[in-house]
Amino acid sequence: MVPENQITPIRIKFKKYGSLMYISHLDLARTMQRIIVRSGIDIWYSEGFNPQPKIVFAVPLPVGVESECEYMDIKINTPMPCDEISRRLSVNFPEEMKVVDVYVPDTKLKKISYIDYEITISSPYVEETTAQEINSLFQKDLYIIKKSKGNEKEINIREYIKSINVNYLNNNIVINTVVCSGNEKNLNPELIIEAIKKNTGILTKSPISELYSIIRKRMLCEDLTEFK
């Protein structure tokens, strides 16, 4: 086995959308293991009684959220050009997953401090004043119950939001927001939806005609530059 300090680190950026937004992070990890093996990429395995392929993901994507910027780090025993890795993965990726970039990283995943999301709300009950109402809502303290590992606590989600911009476009509400992501502070964008439901009544009237979507657009560093 090649020593860990002699292997090549590789970072893979990919998109995940459509029906794949409903698979869990654990299922994604299992899928990626199979794809990498099927692609003939000589991935490095951990040592011990139960060796596992060395795959590390950036911030896990919540179920029901699409993404344009997922990151996965692997380590390979045998050097291979990044464009060849990209080609092999692309051939084996499912239809609703796409390789964006493959490269040797010079930053660590822990550098990610914020995530940029786009939330679109479609409802016959929204109008231009609704955007103004939602925008005003997030300019003040806003408490919501956050569930984590079986525990519940009330948080002021305004402290977890770096920026938020709400607009009325094509009869939809479009929210662009940058939220905290890290060990100390992180915010699931679903809590923004919960706050809107609780305080405006939007998305509570008709489960058939009222819909929303969430897309992860970018991961950002502490200085708000795009993570790479």
Short description:
The protein is built from 4 helices and 10 strands, in the order βαββαββαββββαβ. It has helices spanning 25-38, 82-92, 128-137, 190-200; strands at 8-16, 55-57, 66-76, 97-103, 114-122, 143-148, 151-156, 161-169, 172-180, 211-220.
What would you note in describing this structure?
The protein is an alpha+beta fold. It has two domains: 4-106, Alpha-Beta Plaits, CATH 3.30.70; 111-220, Alpha-Beta Plaits (2-Layer Sandwich). Helices cover 20% and strands 35% of the residues. The chain contains four helices and ten strands. The chain has helices spanning 25-38, 82-92, 128-137, 190-200, and strands at residues 8-16, 55-57, 66-76, 97-103, 114-122, 143-148, 151-156, 161-169, 172-180, 211-220. Strands 1, 2, 3, 4, 5, 8, 9 and 10 form an eight-stranded mixed sheet that branches. The chain has a two-stranded antiparallel ribbon with strand order 6-7. A hairpin with a 2-residue loop joins strand 6 (143-148) and strand 7. The longest helix is centred in the first third of the chain and has 14 residues, at 25-38. It is elongated, with a radius of gyration of 20 Å. The model has no long low-confidence stretch (mean pLDDT 92).
**Biggest sheet features:** 8 strands, mixed
Strand percentage lies at 25-35%
What is the element string, with H for helices and E for strands?
EHEEHEEHEEEEHE
Approximately how much helix is present in the residues?
A: 10-25%
| Number of beta strands | 10
**Number of structural domains:** 2
Count of DSSP H/I helices: 4
CATH architecture term of the largest domain: 2-Layer Sandwich
Distance between the first and last residues' Cα: 30 Å
Average of pLDDT = 92
Which value, in Å, is the CA radius of gyration? 20 Å
Give the CATH level 1 class of the largest domain.
Alpha Beta
Kindly report the CATH topology of the largest domain: Alpha-Beta Plaits
Overall, the morphology is: elongated
Give the helix/strand class.
alpha+beta
Low-confidence stretches: none
